[in-house]
Design a protein that fits this description.
- By secondary structure, the chain is an alpha/beta fold.
- Helix content is 16%, strand content 23%.
- It is built from 3 helices and 13 strands, in the order H-E-E-H-H-E-E-E-E-E-E-E-E-E-E-E.
- The protein has a 7-stranded parallel β-sheet.
- The chain is globular, with a radius of gyration of 17 Å.
Length: 173
């Protein structure tokens, strides 16, 4: 019976690793809506980015992150800068970030972190800076582990830490 159980578990692991495909060991920058929209076409089957991801909407072009909805993990960091959307929908399947998550700058539109609802671990720090319309941390309810620091600064409208209720480990300060 133990051998049968072990065989079953191994079969599940093999199937999981063959269905999930990693890509982009050197990372990727998303600076336009078209690059986000074409992600699944340009990188078919890619669900795990090995490297880093920078989403930088310095041109004000990005209206949604829906094209990234297949991502389940990012091996490097996730840096979101100057995003003009009101939430992070499109990152809904992301469960783990290997390094840090940084959400900085903005046009005052980000009102929630909805879209990060399945994120459970961050291998580095979490930094949320200059999100002047963000009133709570709703969207981080499944986050339980931050290996590094938790940095929340210069978010003028933030009145609640709701969303961090299940956070059980912070490795830094």
């Amino acid at each position: 019976m133990k051998k049968l159980t072990l065989l079953f578990v191994l079969a599940l692991i093999i199937q999981a690793t063959t269905s999930a495909q990693s890509c982009l060991p050197n990372g990727i920058v998303f600076a336009t809506q078209s690059k986000i929209d074409n992600f699944q076409t340009n990188y078919p089957g890619c669900t795990e980015i090995e490297g880093w991801v920078n989403i930088d909407d310095y041109n004000g072009d990005i209206t949604n992150l829906d094209g990234l909805n297949v991502l389940t993990s990012i091996g490097g960091h996730l840096s979101i800068m100057h995003l003009g959307t009101s939430n992070l929908s499109g990152l809904d399947n992301l469960t783990a970030i290997g390094e840090y998550l940084s959400i900085t700058g903005g046009y005052g539109n980000l009102t929630s972190l909805t879209g990060l609802d399945n994120l459970s671990s961050i291998g580095g720090h979490l930094r949320i800076n200059a999100q002047n319309s963000l009133t709570s941390l709703t969207g981080l309810e499944n986050l339980t582990f931050i290996s590094g620091d938790l940095i929340i600064e210069s978010n003028d409208a933030l009145t609640s830490l709701t969303g961090l209720d299940n956070l059980s480990y912070i490795g830094g300060g």
